[in-house]
Amino acid sequence: MAAMPAELFAVLAAMPDEARVTRAGRDFWVGHLHGREVVAVLSRIGKVAAATTATLLLAEFGVTQIVFTGVAGGLGEGVKVGDVVVADALLQHDMDASPLFPRFELPGTDISRLHPPRALVDTVCRSLREALAPETLAARQPALMEQLASLGLGQPVVHRGLVISGDQFLSSARACAALRGALPDALAVEMEGAAVAQVCHDFGVPVTVLRTISDRADDTAHLDFPRFLEAVASPYAVAMLGALLPLI
């Protein structure tokens, strides 16, 4: 699952035999990538839209695991633009059914945080750190190295931790400070991952959520987002999938 069209197009360009199948107004691309049978699809924006897409992948196409790649706002200290966050926990920051249930808890489940399998997260982090290491990028994607330098970005760091999701586009320092106060260990914030994780939890299917940090989710200065998406986030998505698919 890709969060942005540019990321999906980059993945499709690497698939030699994709065939389009349309379900519920969504285009699913069935084919192969790095020797694996895959279905590629745009998640759509927001929790409900992404959950619908994930449900279709599982129920209609019978996929055995989901890999979600997209951009996010950085929240955690030391999480910089151009870094990657691998989710080892996911939570819906706008879920609040109190006083019936504790804040953030998914009603009827007794849980608020959804955890991908630990061994899977270990494998993902290890392989991505190798794939995004300076020597690997210099050898395999020198153009990406040049783009990072031209945007004033350093070498990407792969972080592991809590990713939070909500149906809000956060762009103010005040909103980010409130989230940090409530969830001090959150590393990144976005709009889909925890909903996809909830669907995968219900189906008993593993999920991997990878988020490239495009901004600090506050009112500080932003990079040229379209350029960042095209020059950095999309090549990251292809590189990360290339590293992961042979292993997971």
Quick structural gist:
The chain has 248 residues and is an alpha/beta fold.
What does this structure look like?
This protein is of the alpha/beta class and 248 residues long. The protein has one domain: Rossmann fold (3-Layer(aba) Sandwich), CATH 3.40.50.1580. The strands form 2 sheets. The protein has a 5-stranded mixed barrel with strand order 4-7-6-5-8, surrounded by 4 helices. Strand 1 and strand 2 form a beta hairpin. Helix 2 packs parallel to helix 7 and helix 4 packs across helix 5. The longest helix is centred in the last third of the chain and has 20 residues.
* Major sheet summary line: 5 strands, mixed, barrel
* N-to-C order of helices and strands: HEEEHEEHHHEHEHEH
What fold name stands as the CATH topology? Rossmann fold
Treating each run of at least 4 consecutive H or I residues as one helix, how many helices? 8
In spatial order, strands of the major sheet run 4-7-6-5-8
In terms of DSSP E residues, the strand content is 15-25%
The global form is globular
Low-confidence residue ranges: none
Number of domains: 1
Mean pLDDT: 93
